[in-house]
Write the C-alpha cells for this entry.
Amino acid sequence: MVWLIRSKARLLVSATRLCRAPVDSFHCSFFYALTDHSVCSIPRKWLRSKAMRLNDVNDIQSGSSSSLKINRRPPVSPFDSSSNSLGLQEFTGSKVENENNSGERLDLFDELKQRFLSFKRHKYLEELEHFQTLKEAQSPKFMVIACADSRVCPSTILGFRPGEAFMIRNVANLVPPLENGPSETNAALEFAVKTLEVENILIIGHSCCGGIQTLMSMRDNGGSSFIKSWVTNGKVAKLRTEAAANHLSFDQQCRLCEKESINSSLLNLLTYPWIKDRVRKELLFVHGGYYDFLNCTFEKWTLDLKGSSIEEGGRFLVKDQDLWC
C-alpha cells in the first residue's frame, strides 16, 4: 500500500513539472516529451485532475502507511475580496510577479500607489459627500469622446470631477456612422444618450494626432491592420482636407484634418436617429473641441443643426465658437 502511494506521488510530481513548462512550448509535443511509459499510459483526464489537485497540497510527509500525512490548503474562492492575496492567483495555483528583472514595474506601481493615496487624502476624503452620492447612481451632463493618446486626458485638461463626464477614448477620437455597424464607441453613445440622458456630447481632437497621420498617409481605403481599418472611419475628412489643402505640406494637411475629422464625426452623430431626434428637440447638444498641447490652447464650437446636413459630402455649420488660451 505504501509502495503504491509513493509510486503515484512520484508520477504526479513528474507530470506537474511538465505541466509547468513555458506556455509557448505547450503544443502537441507536450505528451511526446513524456518518456516514462507508465506516465504515458495514465488517462489524460485523470492526469489533469490529479495534477490540479496536487497544487493544493502543501506538504507530503512520507513514512509508514500510518504516518502518511497530506496537508491541504483550505479552499479559497477566486473571487474572495477579503483575501489578502489575489483570488485569481489562488485559483490558478501560479505565482503572480509584480516586477521584472530590473525591478522597473515595482517602481512604477509604487508611484501609482502614492498617487492613489494622495487622491484619497486630498480628494476623496475631502469631498466624501460627493463620492457617497455617486455610489447611488451617475448622472453626468457630458458624454466625451476623446483620443486614446496618452498626452490627452480630458479629466486633467478640462477638470472633470468623477461623475461629471461619461467617457470613451479611441484612436483619433472618431465616431463611425450608423451604417458601419456596432462598435464600442456607438455602444457607449447609446448608453450615454438613452440611459444616462446626457445633455452634451463633446468630441475632443488634438494636435500631433498619430491616428490622423496614419489616415492621411494611406493611399487606399483598405486596411492591413486594426489601426488602418479603424481610421478609415475618417476617410470623408481626409478627402475634404486633400481637396481643400492639396498645396500644403503633409504636416499642415494633418493639422487641418485633425479638426475636419471632428466635424465629420459630429455629422456622423446625426446618422443615429435617437441622437438626431434629441438634438432637434434641443434636449441634446453636440460640440467639437480641439486641444493644441504645443501651446496649450483649446478651441470649442457647437454644431448648428439647422445649417448642417448629413447628406453625402456633408454640410457643416457651427455656432458658439470660442478659443481658450
About this structure: The radius of gyration is 29 Å. The longest helix spans residues 104-124. DSSP finds 14 helices and eight strands in the chain.
